[in-house]
Every structure is written in structure tokens, then in C-alpha cells.
Design goal:
The chain has 166 residues and is an all-alpha fold. Helix content is 84%, strand content 0%. The two termini are 37 Å apart.
């Protein structure tokens, strides 16, 4: 029994180590995105608010911030699930592994959509854009199906528990 307990504690430390590096990476991603934002502002000001394809530059900055947010959600979510719950704002609060996957999936999907808009600004080949749009749509559809199937099983599970309690 002591072996299993020590193995469990060891796994918590591994998760804590992972969380530490994920949160440091998130911090660096926020710093990098902020630095790119400042550079974009400087470019806009120094060129009298004219930059070729300025929308593309804004999309790049948004994509970098979304990546940082995804890392933050992952790090904080793993900490809450495996170490201890935290008092956090609702968007960062995670109570189940499914909720963590769902939150992370939503941010990743949003990031893919933003990258797609960047591809539109670069004026890629129409066939490539169509294939990318179809792939993003399929991924979004899969995320919705998985989310709905989990919600339905959760409702079924809760209704069974309520019946058992009566």
C-alpha cells in the first residue's frame, strides 16, 4: 500500500512539474505576443498608420495571444484537476477532465479560425483555402459532437442518480 501511495505522490509532482513548465511557456507566449503588439503599434505610428496588409499583422497578434491563452488554460486546468482547486474566474475554472478538454478544444478551434483568416489575407490558392475551411469545419463538428455526447451521458448519469436517491 505504501508503494501505491508513494507512486501517487510522485505522479502529483510530475504533474506539478508539467504545470510549472506549461505556465512558464504561457507567460513567455504572453510576453512575446505583447512584444509583437508593441512592434505593430510602432510600425503603424512610424508609417503614419499605413502598413501593407495591416489586417494580417493584427491576425498574427491575435493568434499569438490565443496560443498563450490555450497554454494558460491547460496549465491552470491540470493544476486544478490534479493538485488542488483554485479560486479563479469562471472561464479558467475546471472541475473535470472533459471540461478541460472542451475549453482547450474551443480555444484551439478559435485559433484555427483566426489562422484561416490570416490565410485569407495572404490570398492563397482558392482550392487550398477551401480545403482548410473544410478541415476546420470538420474539427469544429467533431468537437461539438463530442461535447454533446458527453453532456447527454452526464444528463443520463445525473437522472439515474436522482432516481436512485428516491
Amino acid at each position: 500500500m505504501n508503494f501505491i501511495k508513494s507512486l501517487t505522490l510522485f505522479n502529483r509532482y510530475l504533474i506539478l512539474l508539467s504545470v510549472f513548465f506549461i505556465l512558464i511557456t504561457a507567460l513567455l507566449a504572453f510576453v512575446y505576443a505583447s512584444w509583437q503588439t508593441l512592434q505593430l503599434w510602432w510600425e503603424l505610428i512610424s508609417h503614419h498608420w499605413f502598413l501593407k496588409k495591416v489586417e494580417f499583422h493584427f491576425i498574427e497578434v491575435i493568434e499569438r495571444f490565443l496560443t498563450a491563452i490555450a497554454l494558460l488554460i491547460l496549465g491552470v486546468g491540470l493544476y486544478e484537476l490534479f493538485i488542488q482547486p483554485l479560486r479563479l474566474p469562471e472561464p479558467l475554472r475546471v472541475t473535470s477532465f472533459h471540461e478541460l478538454k472542451s475549453n482547450l478544444g474551443n480555444v484551439i478551434l478559435l485559433n484555427m479560425v483566426v489562422i484561416f483568416f490570416g490565410d485569407l489575407a495572404e490570398e492563397e490558392e482558392p482550392q487550398n483555402l477551401l480545403l482548410k475551411a473544410a478541415a476546420i469545419g470538420m474539427i469544429g463538428g467533431i468537437l461539438i459532437v463530442f461535447s454533446q455526447s458527453h453532456n447527454q451521458s452526464g444528463v443520463h448519469h445525473h437522472s439515474q442518480n436522482a432516481q436512485n436517491d428516491e
